[in-house]
Amino acid sequence: MAVIDMLSRLNMDTTVLRARMATLTQQTATGLKSQQLGGLGADLPQALDLKGEIHRQQTYSAAISAAGGRATGTQAALARLQDIAAHFADSVAIKLDPNDPQGITRAATEARDALVQVARLLNSQQGGQYLFGGTDLANPPVPDPANIGSAGFVSQITAALATLGGGNAATVLNSAVTAAASNVAGVTAFSAFLSDPATGLAEPRRAVPTADGQTMAYGVAANRNAAAVSTGANTTGSWARDLLGGLAMLAAMTPASAAAAPADFRQLVQGVTGWVKGAATTLGEESGALGQAQAQLEQLRTTQAATVTALTTQLAGVQEVDMAATITRLQGTQTTLQASYSAISQLGTLTLVQFL
User: Fold this and answer.
1) Could you write out the three-class secondary structure of the chain?
2) pLDDT recorded at residue 334
3) What is the pTM for the complete model shown?
């Protein structure tokens, strides 16, 4: 009976050792205490908390990265728009003279082309989303860029220019500013969404969530300033409207209008030059403000990446085994199991005489 009891105990011990061997072998292969969360025992709540926080930080980081890409696309468009505004203010409008009819014709042709180019830049996209469309991501901010020269505000500016004379240059320019500032359908070049006081004109800037309850604005709408403030004697309050209005005025100028009222023409050119130059200055400020937001977003993304790394290290301490210690335990268990098998084998060879 003693031998039978001993065999029974050895069999039980062997079963326990085999189970421990299987667990240690799996831990050695995966590096994890358990492939199932339930196998973490008392460490389960901490592991769940860490996993949740890692996922949250990664989600914010992904959103910031996407916003950073859109901001980069916006910056590229702003830079080109600023170049156009500066070019016309510093190299085109300022040189117009009633005594140079060919120069006036060339400037008007260049301005008409630039109108289309500006409209298309305002329709810039990133990842299939319009960058300057506010929350109306699927529709162009300027619905018909190729035919912007036929927009109502351009027609009104052209009509105002036709009245130039008798010392009314300031009045003509004010009429142009009013036309460029209009949100009336058929007059404005911008979409119905952006021109609606209940939607595009009222909504906050597009922003990205950066943490629980925190966001950072980075969006720029086509028809209104974001962070910059337009200043100057003649401004619509929007760098885009100022640039489009100034280009429309330059596009409408003709040698005949200059010859009919040379003094008024010179005064008007001076005003338009300042109008477009103001747009260039404000564009630079808008770009600078967006650049600051980009730098902050990048800093946040870097901080979140470091946080994820630290949290992942903590999670590893909860989920992962000490590989060296696990291998040592595996080897010890294997040795003990082999000894148990050997003992069972020796007991199985006892003769009846030995047994008695």
Assistant:
1) CHHHHHHHHHHHHHHHHHHHHHHHHHHHHHCECCCCHHHHHHHHHHHHHHHHHHHHHHHHHHHHHHHHHHHHHHHHHHHHHHHHHHHHHHHHHHHCCCCCHHHHHHHHHHHHHHHHHHHHHHCCEECCEECCCCCCCCCCCCCCHHHHHHCHHHHHHHHHHCCCCCCCHHHHHHHHHHHHHCCCCCCCCCCHHHHCCCCCCCCCCCEEEEECCEEEECCCCCCCCCCCCCCCCCCCCCHHHHHHHHHHHHHHCCHHHHHHCHHHHHHHHHHHHHHHHHHHHHHHHHHHHHHHHHHHHHHHHHHHHHHHHHHHHHHHHHHECCHHHHHHHHHHHHHHHHHHHHHHHHHHCCCHHHHC
2) 67
3) 0.80
pLDDT at residue 46, as a whole number: 76
Cβ of 183: how many Cβ atoms within 10 Å? 17
Alpha carbons 13 and 266: distance in angstroms, whole number: 105
Where the chain has pLDDT below 50, the residues are: 350-356
Identify the burial level of 353 via C-beta atoms within 10 angstroms of its C-beta, where 0-12 means exposed, 13-18 middle and 19 or more buried.
exposed
Give the pLDDT score at 350.
47
60 in any annotated domain: no
pLDDT (0 to 100) of residue 82: 98
Predicted confidence at residue 79, as pLDDT, reads 98
Residue reference for tokens 């351009």: 154
Same domain? For 336 and 291 the reply is no
**What phi and psi, each to the nearest 5 degrees, are found at residue 210?**
-115, -20
Identify the pLDDT of residue 297.
94
Which domain range does residue 25 map to?
2-51+321-355
For residue 62, being part of any structural domain is answered with no
End-to-end CA distance of the chain: 10
Query: Residue 354: what pLDDT?
Result: 45
Q: To which residue do tokens 């180019």 refer?
A: 117
Distance CA 182, CA 108 (A): 23
Q: Does some domain include residue 297?
A: yes
